[in-house]
Structures are given as structure tokens and as C-alpha cells.
Design a protein that fits this description.
Elements: H1 2-20, H2 27-54, H3 65-69, E1 80-81, E2 85-91, E3 94-104, E4 110-117, H4 122-133, E5 137-140, E6 143-150, E7 153-160, E8 165-172, E9 176-183, H5 189-196, H6 199-202
Antiparallel strand pairs: 1-3, 2-3, 3-4, 4-9, 5-6, 6-7, 7-8, 8-9
Helix pairs in contact: 1-2, 2-4
């Protein structure tokens, strides 16, 4: 766990430096950085505590990718659906599964949806837990990124004005990771697609 805490610290510091690396220093900026470091420290501690609680939890058999495929949207307005894909993977004693589909349209319009079941392999959730625990929010002339809720599940949403890129990542039932990305479909398009999925039913899934 000490190694994990050190890793998280490094990630947090890199993130904060990246957020504040542009422009000259001033009192307001230094205060903002201090506030971000404080919040990041709280998020790190909370994430570390969550990891400690799950350290002794044994991974469970993953839900079949065939089941995950049924939770992917069949259509996205105005786009052509690609072939849904799914797979199961094994890494030593770890087993997990994923399913995904991509939709494409004219003018570079695109949407991709992925559903992961990491089957309670604690270390694989660490980056997401940290992301949600930070309760981060930033908005600028270029867009925004912020912690949000979607169907009562923790989520993180991004919007980039250049390219009209939208993304939302959702932790469903403390187990499943749903990632929706869109290009050229407008602000809120990723959230709309995620909201169309039956996430509450997904949260109840277990391996047969």
C-alpha cells in the first residue's frame, strides 16, 4: 500500500503541475494551486483507504462479455453502427471482460462505447477511484472537465470545444466501468448516450 500511495502522490502532483503550468505566477494562482493540492491530498487519502479495504477482497469471476454486449446501445442517432466486439482476458489469477461498439457518420462524427468488468480487481479501479474522489471541476474557454453523477453513479465528464469532443466515464455498482466518447456530436452527447443505457440493471449483474 505504501507503493500505491507513492504512485498516487506522483500522479496527483503531475496533474496539479499540468493544470498550473501555463502563465506567470501570481498570488491568486498560487492560492488556487494550494487549494488543488489540498483537495488532491484528501482524494489520495480517501482512495488509499478504499484500496486498503479491498486489499484482502478476492477478485470474482467476471460477467461474460456476451452479457456485457447486451448493454451496449444498438443505435446512436444519425450514425452507422459498427460490429459489436467483446472479449475476456486473463492475467495470472486475474480475469476480466469488456465489450465495445463504435458508430460513425459523415464529417468525422463518431461515438464509441465501452463496458469493462474488472471483477473487483482492486488495483485496476485505483485510477478511476482517484478521479471520482477528487471531485474535480475546471472550466475555460477551451471546455471543461468535472466530477458529476449519472443515474446516481459517480462519473467524470469532459468537453473540448475544439473538435467538439465529449467523454464521460461512469463507475457502475462499484464494479463496472462505462466509457462513452463522442466526436463532432455536440456538448452533452456522451452523457446522453450513457443515460440511454440500462446502468442500474448493469449494476446488478454477476457471473452465471
Amino acid at each position: 500500500m505504501t507503493v500505491f500511495r507513492g504512485f498516487v502522490c506522483a500522479v496527483l502532483l503531475a496533474a496539479v503541475v499540468g493544470l498550473n503550468g501555463c502563465g506567470g505566477k501570481d498570488e491568486k494562482k498560487e492560492q488556487s494551486m494550494l487549494e488543488q493540492l489540498t483537495e488532491a491530498g484528501k482524494a489520495m487519502e480517501k482512495t488509499a483507504q478504499q484500496m486498503e479495504k479491498t486489499a484482502d477482497q478476492k477478485p470474482v469471476p467476471p460477467v461474460s462479455f456476451k452479457v456485457l454486449l447486451t448493454f451496449l446501445p444498438a443505435t446512436v442517432d444519425g450514425l452507422k453502427a459498427g460490429e459489436p466486439e467483446g472479449e475476456s482476458q486473463t492475467m495470472g489469477e486475474w480475469n476480466f471482460s469488456r465489450a465495445n461498439i463504435e458508430f460513425t457518420g459523415d464529417g468525422g462524427k463518431r461515438a464509441s462505447i465501452e463496458v469493462f468488468d474488472y471483477a473487483h480487481i482492486g488495483v485496476l479501479y485505483a485510477p478511476y477511484q482517484l478521479l471520482f474522489n477528487m471531485k474535480f471541476s475546471r472550466e475555460s474557454t477551451k471546455g471543461y472537465e468535472k466530477s458529476v453523477k449519472l443515474a446516481d453513479f459517480p462519473a467524470f465528464e469532459k468537453w473540448e470545444l475544439a473538435g467538439a469532443n465529449n467523454e464521460i466515464t461512469v463507475l457502475v455498482g462499484d464494479r463496472f466501468i462505462v466509457v462513452v466518447k463522442t466526436d463532432g456530436l455536440g456538448e452533452g452527447s456522451a452523457r446522453k448516450i450513457a443515460e440511454s443505457m440500462d446502468l442500474k440493471k448493469l449494476a446488478t449483474q454477476t457471473a452465471a
